[in-house]
Amino acid sequence: MAILVFPGKGGTGKTTLSALTVKYFAEKGEITLALDFDPDSHLHKLLGLPLKKTVGQVVDRVHKEKKAELEPKKPLDVSDHEYFLSLIAKDVFVEGEKFDILTLGKPSIDIDCYCPVFIWAEYAINQIMRSYGMPYKHIVVDCDPGTEIFPRKILDHIAQNRGIDYILVVLDGSRMSLDTAKDIIREAKSRNLKVRRIYGIGNRVDNEEIQKQFIEVAKKNYEIEIIGFIPTDQEISKRSLLNQNILDIPNSPAYQAIKNILTKLKI
């Protein structure tokens, strides 16, 4: 089993690399749980799965029912936790042939912070793993931008039994993405998160000379090891624009690159 986490600055391509990693495991016949923690919630599109509701929308619904803004649906003999999990199973959790997905989303403006969403998401993930007998060979996490995921403890819960195998910080070749990566690594270490290794992956940095400079700057100024680069893939760009899945692209250079990286990591 491998747990892979894709954080990074916004817009670097975390969702695309997460989807390509799920594709890699699917082709090996290994079941993956994909967790979309980006508030924009695009991972399901690239994986070709429908999005019914998000955890945030379910939290919002329960919140409004408790405030009597909506007619309460919870039976009197059912606990709040049982009721919430039933909504997650029915409305949020989406099962595919080779992978399942849980989408965090975000609450409405009536809820001031993400805290309730993450607390309930932690519970939902734990219960899903228990209820399904942990059939998953791998877990792939598409993070929200920056470092926001670390204070919320949700990664701690995901990794509580065996730790995270790899944090693969997605970089776009800019110093800004390296600055964000530095903050991400500092957060992971300061919170004693159990992580086997942390690497950087350059995404859409195609010029070889710039790649060499980027590797040097990342190592010398940030102590970040770049494990590989993902080339610009025009078909992925096209399908992302059209909200189409990217799993069946033939001869994808981006997929071949992530496949080479994951093979190098012996996953």
Write the layout of secondary structure elements.
Elements: E1 2-6, H1 14-27, E2 32-36, H2 43-47, H3 55-66, H4 80-92, E3 94-95, E4 99-103, H5 115-131, E5 138-142, H6 154-158, E6 164-171, H7 175-190, E7 195-203, H8 208-222, E8 226-230, H9 234-241, H10 253-264
Parallel strand pairs: 1-5, 1-6, 2-4, 2-5, 6-7, 7-8
Antiparallel strand pairs: 3-4
Helix pairs in contact: 1-10, 3-4, 4-5
Please characterize this protein's 3D structure.
- It contains 10 helices and 8 strands.
- It has helices at 14-27, 43-47, 55-66, 80-92, 115-131, 154-158, 175-190, 208-222, 234-241, 253-264; strands at 2-6, 32-36, 94-95, 99-103, 138-142, 164-171, 195-203, 226-230.
- An 8-stranded mixed β-sheet has the order 3-4-2-5-1-6-7-8, sandwiched between helices.
- Strand 7, helix 8 and strand 8 (226-230) form a beta-alpha-beta unit.
- The chain is globular.
